């Protein structure tokens, strides 16, 4: 089984509390606690090796122009009400704390003093897989091709899948979770007659070197343009969402980086925000797929309203890795107790799409 093209290993592997909705903030706060205490959750009793997720708690820095100032202030106020350790920095404070940053055109910034940063995505994924296997989970490699339901249509009985040789098998189940990712979430949902607006969008990440830089204590910086950058070892990574008119849905396997995006869009923005970045060299690049929920760019989680034991965990829209621990906990609570216990995620149900009640999340990067 290969994870070469999975979204996890091709992501920027970051976590933040700087969202505009309470539920998204709480989800990531749970994720931070999970990463900080990963050995309590994922260690194997007879294994002495401790898990080090390489969590760099350098924070996020969201920058605001005059037009974005009031929104950033409102977001920080919401985050602080949720006990997130976020500071609102004026231009003088930005200059003091980040002297390498050009504050031209800025009015303020929201900075995560703790709880935000980045980590090793492959290590988290493999630690989760190892723990699951230790607890008796069977990993089956195959392709789901159909879902069988009871005659009433209200419950899933089994999943039909085929292996690499084309042999078909039936897997009986008491609960079926659609956590299939960007390229197959809609097709799995369609097997129970559901249609969810989740589509694959390609996102590129560029690794660049700045040999003479003095960019010390750098957080993950989000420019008002939407361009972001952060340290990666002794180098940096950066990316940006392409404009909507040049952001088509993509097929599995389309992971070729768009170098023109860096040359024409990202590099000028980098040099404008950090003068030291005028002289940089791209040393690597890769692309992966976001499972974009085009309805409101928030996760769809919870049971189907008709097929009661079919659960959604789709449409993370780029936030999947940081939200995975809380969503996993939420799904287990639904299956065990038929309700959310740790965090009430009912606003993210699939029903909101049918009812045309989008959740407005202002901090989508």
Question: Approximately how much helix is present in the residues?
Answer: 25-40%
Sum up the overall morphology in one term: globular
**Low-pLDDT windows of residues:** none
Succession of helices and strands: EHHEHEHEEHEEEEHEEEEHEEEHH
Report the average pLDDT across residues.
95
Helix/strand class:
alpha+beta
Q: Which strand order spans the largest sheet, edge to edge or round the barrel?
A: 3-4-2-11-12-13-10-14
Largest sheet: 8 strands, mixed
Number of strands: 16
Question: Count of helical segments?
Answer: 9
Terminal-residue CA separation: 30 Å
What fraction of residues sit in β-strands? 15-25%
Provide the fold topology.
Elements: E1 14-15, H1 22-36, H2 38-42, E2 60-64, H3 69-81, E3 86-90, H4 91-97, E4 108-112, E5 117-118, H5 121-134, E6 143-149, E7 156-162, E8 168-172, E9 176-178, H6 185-190, E10 198-209, E11 220-222, E12 228-232, E13 235-239, H7 259-273, E14 281-293, E15 300-303, E16 310-314, H8 320-337, H9 351-354
Parallel strand pairs: 2-11, 9-16
Antiparallel strand pairs: 1-5, 2-4, 3-4, 6-7, 7-8, 10-13, 10-14, 11-12, 12-13, 15-16
Helix pairs in contact: 1-8
Please give a structural write-up.
The chain is α+β, with helices and mostly antiparallel strands. It is built from 9 helices and 16 strands. An 8-stranded mixed sheet has the order 3-4-2-11-12-13-10-14, sandwiched between helices. A 3-stranded antiparallel sheet has the order 6-7-8, with no helix packed on it. A hairpin with a 6-residue loop joins β15 (300-303) and β16. It starts with 13 loop residues before the first strand and ends in an 11-residue tail after the last helix. The model has no long low-confidence stretch (mean pLDDT 95).
């Amino acid at each position: 089984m290969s994870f070469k093209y999975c979204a996890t290993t091709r992501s920027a592997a970051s976590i933040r509390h700087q969202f505009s909705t309470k539920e998204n903030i709480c989800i990531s706060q749970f994720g931070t606690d999970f990463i900080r205490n990963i050995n309590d959750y994922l260690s194997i009793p007879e294994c002495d090796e401790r898990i080090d997720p390489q969590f760099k708690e350098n924070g996020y820095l969201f920058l605001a122009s005059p037009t974005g100032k009031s929104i950033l202030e409102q977001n920080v106020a919401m985050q602080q009400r949720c006990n997130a350790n976020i500071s609102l920095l004026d231009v003088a404070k930005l200059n003091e704390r980040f002297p390498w940053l050009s504050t031209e055109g800025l009015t303020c910034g929201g900075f995560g003093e703790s709880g935000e940063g980045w980590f090793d995505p492959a290590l988290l994924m493999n630690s989760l897989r190892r723990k699951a296997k230790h607890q008796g989970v069977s990993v089956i490699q195959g392709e789901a091709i159909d879902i069988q339901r009871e005659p009433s249509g209200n419950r899933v009985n089994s999943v039909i899948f085929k292996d690499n040789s084309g042999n078909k098998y039936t897997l009986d189940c008491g609960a079926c979770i659609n956590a299939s990712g960007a390229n197959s979430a809609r097709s799995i949902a369609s097997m129970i007659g559901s249609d969810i607006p989740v589509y694959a969008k390609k996102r590129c990440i560029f690794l660049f070197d700045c040999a003479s830089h003095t960019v010390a204590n750098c957080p993950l910086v989000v420019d008002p343009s939407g361009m972001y950058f952060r340290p990666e070892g002794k180098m940096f990574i950066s990316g940006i969402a392409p404009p909507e008119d040049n952001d088509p849905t993509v097929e599995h396997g389309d992971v070729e980086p768009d170098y023109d995006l860096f040359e024409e869009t990202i590099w000028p923005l980098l040099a404008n925000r950090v003068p030291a970045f005028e002289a940089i060299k791209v040393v690597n690049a890769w692309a992966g797929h976001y499972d974009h929920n085009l309805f409101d760019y928030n996760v769809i989680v919870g049971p189907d309203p008709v097929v009661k034991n079919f659960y959604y965990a789709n449409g993370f829209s780029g936030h999947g890795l940081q939200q995975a621990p809380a969503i996993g906990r939420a799904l287990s609570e639904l299956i065990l107790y038929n309700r959310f216990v740790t965090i009430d995620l009912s606003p993210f149900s699939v029903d909101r799409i049918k009812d045309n009640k989008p959740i407005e999340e202002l901090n989508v990067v």
